[in-house]
Write a structure and sequence with these properties.
CATH architecture of the largest domain: Orthogonal Bundle
Distance between the termini: 66 Å
Number of strands: 11
Number of helices: 19
Helix content: 40-55%
Oligomer: single chain
Number of domains: 3
Length: about 500
């Protein structure tokens, strides 16, 4: 059986240049081609670390090579996929910028075939060595995380056993905390949290009730309603928890312990100052404690008191369980329908969930279809015809991709809106926010999330600046899905949309 060839992505708007490079390398490598930066990003998203190298031109339409490099840095793709710039640009500024953006090498045209092949092999060999070293480090970190997770699970089980409650409550609080934090960052840039910090807060949230170890079992496990005096005793568990964690010898400065201590002490504080033990207000309460507190309330209602999911969300939104951060309330309402699904998924497959998702993506990537040259030419002709028709109508047409989120406008549309042709993370882009308003962009992304295979078409009206003037517009989007026959499920593919000026109609 023939060994699979390593994949190289060649990105150049000149078909002849791509053909020359492909002829140089085609015997040893599987060649994938892209005619501009947008198409290149699509291939990188699809193939990921299956790509051994990217050969990247600089000057291209829609998205140039330096913009592709910048995006690869932003989403950390550059850490796993080496890039060699191949260009006729000789200005030192271009070369310096390419290296600043972590390009592995820079080859100027005209070039010699032997030189290209040698430098391609060098780049791939260097990257393979780096991956091997990174793999060894990753294995060490993974083992440490496994040990940490095991200890957290044991400790949370002991806490649950002592408190007479289900261990699932503690795990649910951890899961819900993660869901809320991940989506909070999509709604606002107020809280600067890395993925490592989110993981740390989510793990620490499982220890929020550790202080109940210090409370008398008779009070904790009392079947009836607590007296006011007994409730005051129970309330001391938050301070006890922080004290217990703060006096663990040799580990009191560990990030996990510090975060868990904050959550223990302040997860019962409320945004208006109506909580305990310190009566903190607003963002004086650490965001980790705010989110863990909301997660605790939600799961206590649905898990312990058997309140329905819908009723629990309604009670929290109306302030019946204390006042929470308005941004967290908005996040809860946004992800309300996902929470129960994710809790169930995490309970079913635990820490393997991301691994299963990765394996699934790999299977999809390996299940490639052989496409004839004629079919590819026909598809390219269709794309050209589509671009021509859009340019003639003058309409504002756009496409949206997920993971990462990228919005791409037709040339005429980008000109009218005063935005770039292609924008990554539109909810954080200054020009997009100035034109649409952040709430409208978030609403658009929410609508795309809510679309299904059976109901792919959604729309809403809002005010948008067109040619610098505020106009009433209707945004209509249609989401496309791919059918996986092996699982009989539909996977998100992309979204195409239209912005229609309805000011005169109104």
């Amino acid at each position: 059986m023939e060994e699979n060839k390593q994949k190289i992505l060649i990105v150049d708007d000149s078909e002849m240049n791509r053909s020359i490079l492909a002829d140089m390398l085609g015997d040893e490598f599987e060649i994938i081609e892209a005619c501009d930066g947008i198409e290149a990003v699509g291939h990188i998203r699809r193939y990921g670390v299956e790509l051994s190298l990217v050969l990247l031109d600089i000057v291209m339409p829609r998205m140039d090579g330096l913009e592709v490099l910048a995006m690869m840095n932003s989403y950390k793709w550059i850490e796993n996929i080496p890039v060699i710039m191949i260009s006729s640009e000789r200005a030192s500024a271009y070369i310096a910028r390419a290296y600043e953006l972590q390009a592995t090498d820079y080859i100027q045209r005209p070039f010699d075939a032997a030189v290209v092949r040698r430098r391609v092999m060098n780049a791939i060999m260097l990257n393979n060595r780096q991956k091997k070293l990174a793999g060894l480090v990753e294995e060490q970190i993974f083992k440490k995380k496994q040990e940490q997770s095991l200890m957290l699970n044991i400790l949370s089980y002991v806490i649950a056993y002592r408190n007479g409650e289900s261990n699932t409550h503690l795990m649910h609080v951890s899961t819900i905390t993660n869901i809320l934090l991940q989506n909070l960052l999509k709604l606002t840039d107020k809280y600067k949290l890395s993925q490592n910090e989110i993981a740390l807060i989510s793990e620490a949230a499982a220890l929020h009730d550790i202080g109940k170890i210090a409370i008398d079992e008779k009070i904790l496990n009392k079947p009836g309603k607590l007296t006011p005096e007994e409730f005051e005793i129970v309330k001391t568990h938050s301070a006890y928890g922080a004290e217990i964690l703060g006096h663990i010898p040799a580990y009191d400065k560990e990030p996990l312990i510090r975060v868990a201590s904050d959550i223990c002490r302040w997860h019962h504080e409320r945004y208006d100052g109506g909580g305990y033990p310190d009566g903190l207000k607003g963002d004086d309460i650490p965001i980790g404690a705010q989110v863990a507190g909301l997660a605790d309330v939600y799961d206590s209602l649905t898990n312990k008191k058997s309140v329905s999911h819908e009723k629990a969300v309604d009670m929290i939104v109306k302030g019946e369980c204390g006042v929470f951060n308005p941004l967290l309330i908005k996040t809860l309402k946004w992800v309300a329908n996902k929470i129960q699904i994710d809790i169930h998924a995490n309970a079913s497959i635990g820490n393997t969930r991301k691994e299963v998702a990765r394996m699934t993506r790999d299977e999809i990537s390996h299940g490639e279809l052989t496409v004839s040259k004629r079919t590819m030419e026909l598809l390219e002709r269709e794309r050209e015809r589509y671009r021509f028709v859009v340019s003639m109508t003058g309409e504002i047409i756009f496409e949206v991709y997920r993971d990462p989120t990228i919005i791409t406008f037709c040339e005429e549309g980008a000109k009218k809106l005063g935005v770039e042709l292609s924008v990554k993370d539109p909810a954080s882009d200054v020009k997009i926010i100035s034109c649409f308003g952040k709430e409208n962009i978030v609403m658009l992304l929410e609508l795309i999330e809510s679309a299904t295979y059976d109901n792919p078409l959604v729309s809403f009206e809002c005010d948008i600046k067109i040619n610098g003037k505020s106009r009433r517009c209707r945004i209509t989007v249609m989401t496309q899905y791919l059918h996986d026959e092996t699982t009989d499920e539909y996977e998100y593919y992309s979204t195409v949309g239209r912005i229609e000026d309805i000011s005169e109609e109104k």
